[in-house]
Hints:
Blueprint: E1 3-7, H1 13-25, E2 30-37, E3 57-63, E4 73-80, E5 93-98, E6 114-117, E7 138-141, E8 154-160, E9 179-185, E10 197-200, H2 204-220, H3 228-232, E11 236-241
Parallel strand pairs: 1-2, 2-3, 3-4, 4-5, 5-6, 6-7, 7-8, 8-9
Antiparallel strand pairs: 9-11, 10-11
Amino acid sequence: MQSAEIDATDIPTRQLNDRLMALMLEGTEKFVLKNVCGQRYIGTRLYSKNGSHRKLDIEITGTPGSDLGAFLFGHRIRIHGNVQDGVGNTMDDGEIVVEGRAGDVLGFSMRGGKIFVRDSAGYRTALHMKEYLEKKPVIVIGGTTQDFLGEYMAGGVVILLGLGGTLHSQNFIGSGMHGGVIYIRGKVNRLSVADQVEISQPGVDDLKVLDQYVGEFVERFPEMRLSKQEILNGEFVRLAPKSKRPYAKMYA
C-alpha cells in the first residue's frame, strides 16, 4: 500500500486538501497527518472523476477542524485526539473513529457509515440523521452528549454507553424525531425526552443491534480494556418515535 506522511503545521485548509487530492490521484492509499490544528473538510474531496471509488485510510494526530469527513463515501478516518463540529456531515459511507471528544452536530444529516467516539459529544448529535435505501448510519459514543440529541432524526442508530459514570442527563432528546432509534445506557428522565418519543426496554432484536455495535466499539478502542459483556449487562433504554409525522396535527 502506497502511503504518505504530511506534517500539517501551518498548512492552510485548502492547501492541505489539495495536497491530499493530488497524492490520492497519484495512487496513495494511506495518509498519516501530523500536527493537524483546525484544518477543515479533511476527507471531503477525496474522490476521482473517473468513477473509481478507492477506499483510503487516513490517520490524524492533532485536532482537525469542522466538517471532518463531510460527504464521506467510504474512507476510514482515525483521529488521535479531539474533533471539532460537524464531523460526518452528510456522510454516505465509511468509518470515523475519534480517540477523544467530538464537538456539536456530530453526524448531521448522516445517511450511511459509522462513527465511533471514545468520550462524549456536544449539542445536536445526529441532527437530521437519516437512512437512505439500504444504508443505515450508526453512531456509538462512549460517554454522553449535550442537549437536542436526535433532533429531527429520521433514521439510523445512536448508542450512548455512559462509560466512566457519564450517564446522559441532558434535555430535549428526540425533538421532532420521526425515524431511527436511540439506545441509552442508564435511566432517562421522561421530562428530558420529547413528547413524541416513546421510552421502552430493548427487545430481542434491539439486543442483537447492541451486541453488534457495542462489540465494534470495544474492538476500536482496545487501549480502554473494555468488556463488551460488562457494558451489555448494564441497563439500556430504547427511544423511538411514536409517529413518522410528529407534527401532523399542526398542519391539519
